[in-house]
Amino acid sequence: MISRRSFIKRSFAAGAAAMVAPAIYAKGTSALPTQLVDFDALGLSQLIKNKEVSPKEVVMATINRIEALDGKLNAINTPTFEKALETVKNINPDAPFAGVPFVMKDNINYAGVKTTNGSKLFENNVAKESAQLTKAYEKAGFVILGKTNMPEFGLAPTTESVLLKPAHNPWNTEYSSGGSSGGSSISVAAGYLPLAHASDGGGSIRIPASSCGIFGLKPSRMRMLPGSSDQLEFMVDNCVSRTVRDSAMLFSLTQNPANPANLKPVGFVSGPSKRRLTIGLCMKNYFGELPHPEIQKAIEDTAKLLESLGHTVIEVKNPVTGEFEDQFLSLFAAKMVKTAAFVQQMTGKPAAETGLLEPFTLEFDVMGRKRGNESVIKANKYFEHKGIEVANWMNSFDVLLTPVTKTPSPKLGYMTDSSLSFDDLSRRIFDYMSYTPVQNALGLPGMSVPLGMSSNGLPIGSHFAAGNGDEQTLLELAYELEAAKPWAHKWAPVSAKINGLK
């Protein structure tokens, strides 16, 4: 049970359920919380505030889960357990997440800890100073237990870098966890802890959230504090979580107070809205292709659920075409040109001769040099125009519903197959992730909500997007879906709950 203290002696069926958030438990289930692993982050913090459990006990339980399961999953690549045990000695009891364990993707700086970006280039790179976002996490009361696995520079929608090795999906360890926030998503799905830092440059929060059966919100451009990036371009930071309210609270605490995008601030969204929405359903990707039948069925089921809740679902035609991908790749390739130039400057050798960058990354460098600066100018003009077009298109509905990915999660190795040419492998990868990059390029918020399951037992998320700055509508809808079709009581086969870890 939770502890030796009086908490378990109380009448706790109602009180504990309320502490975790009533909406997440399915009516008629026996999923009421009886162990620490059952609680979301706000629930754990409340236990600590009530002195029902100590921060050290919560942290030690988390460390035990990681040590018991991570040999199978490979989600945590740089543990900071000793540092965490020092941190718990000075927890501010009034902080929103006082004493709650937390992990961060290995692309955000934490002073004194390595930031590898999943690349051999930064294998021994130790951060001298914490990012602003990291400092905000500490101020919120989190105890940081380590860094999480990711692909090199977050370029792939699967977490299988040469440096950090493949991360394994806890629902089936032969399958991909998605990427690039794969390690963070595994950590939450496996029950190491209830939420974790994640970042998204083309679907990197939403894809692994879908693959691992958890919740993930990508905010609007420039909404958040500087973290893994300055948030000025495609990359934004946020988190993945088991419950909507944890994500909603952390989102409210980590927005950039400078508000460089002049967005309306969003406080803590505490529950669903009574407002009924018009939801545009777009099943085809930007190539005009339908997804795998199991993905299509999952999204159709979500549409039916929305209609049963009183929302209006209308079919809409995707205004984004295949040209989008070409322009998107031009900007990403340009970034890898800069990275390769940095390697050459550092080593005195062409990047391809150093062994510091993976072949897929090097091919992006080649692409970028072939296309030149003109392609970057052209791409930026394209996205400026497309942003206006899509904004006008979305005026006819409140929220857009699409798949997260074109197919269910593939087996490990499918998106890192070295026998394929760069063109064939990139075609495979970008076909798989041909829904989520649109929001990054146009600066819009999007989320993956864990509402479906494939025939072989792998989660399938439903993707929702809204207009610029309208995360509130997305969170309110997520709360409603969480209550209608709960997921927090569902556990992966390789998880703390199923393996009897408290």
TrEMBL record:
Top EC class of this enzyme: hydrolase
Single GO molecular function: amidase activity
Pfam families cross-referenced by the UniProt entry: Amidase
Keywords: Hydrolase, Signal
SUPFAM superfamilies, sorted: Amidase signature (AS) enzymes (SSF75304)
Catalytic activity, EC: 3.5.1.4
Residues in Amidase domain copies: 57-475
Superkingdom of the source species: Bacteria
Stretch forming the signal peptide: 1-26
InterPro entries: Amidase, Amidase_dom, AS_sf, TAT_signal, TAT_signal_bac_arc
Protein family per UniProt: Belongs to the amidase family.
Protein name: Amidase
Organism of origin: Carboxylicivirga mesophila
Phylogenetic classification of the source organism: Bacteria, Pseudomonadati, Bacteroidota, Bacteroidia, Marinilabiliales
